[in-house]
Design brief:
5 helices, 2 strands, about 80% helix, two-stranded parallel sheet
């Protein structure tokens, strides 16, 4: 299967795990159930050319998956699902940011009226207005970023469709 380990090559079993009972559990039970091959290659048993051949075999097996149309379709579906999820998140963030930006405009308007009517001191007005202006500028950047990223997703969908 693509994306899963099919072969583990270690110099010797002690390099795999120092707890020999766990090594036994892996080699006897877990690895066979998961179709994983464990190869312990000490200098006396396997030559480097044999390890190289195993590596080439695994590369060929991986290349078959890359040529497989079903694999390409699965990868495409995952990419599309990721794009849709990102689009939904961006749309939600954009909507929330637009709503907050509108609220900040109303809050700032009311704050200005309270200052003009003498309900707020100059110091309090400056402190609060600075806070709202900074937040509004951050929202403006976030809104622009969301719109640009949504436009890129739309372009990618148009190219694929």
């Amino acid at each position: 299967m693509f994306g899963y380990v099919s072969t583990i090559i270690v110099k010797e079993l002690s390099r795999f795990d120092r707890q020999y009972d766990m090594v036994g559990c892996y080699t006897v039970t877990y690895f066979p159930d998961m179709s994983v091959r464990l190869i312990a290659a000490n200098d006396n048993s396997i030559r480097s050319d044999a390890i190289e051949q195993l590596g080439l075999l695994e590369l060929r097996r991986l290349a078959k998956y890359l040529e497989n149309k079903e694999f390409a379709e699965l990868l495409s579906e995952k990419t599309n699902a990721d794009m849709i999820a990102e689009q939904e998140l961006l749309e939600q963030s954009l909507s929330t940011s637009l709503y907050r930006s509108e609220n900040l405009t109303n809050i700032f308007s009311k704050l200005y009226e309270d200052h003009v009517n003498g309900k707020l001191s100059d110091e309090m007005f400056m402190e609060l207005s600075h806070k709202y202006v900074v937040e509004r500028m951050e929202l403006k950047d976030r809104i622009q970023d969301c719109r640009e990223r949504l436009a890129k997703i739309g372009e990618n969908e148009a190219k694929q469709g």
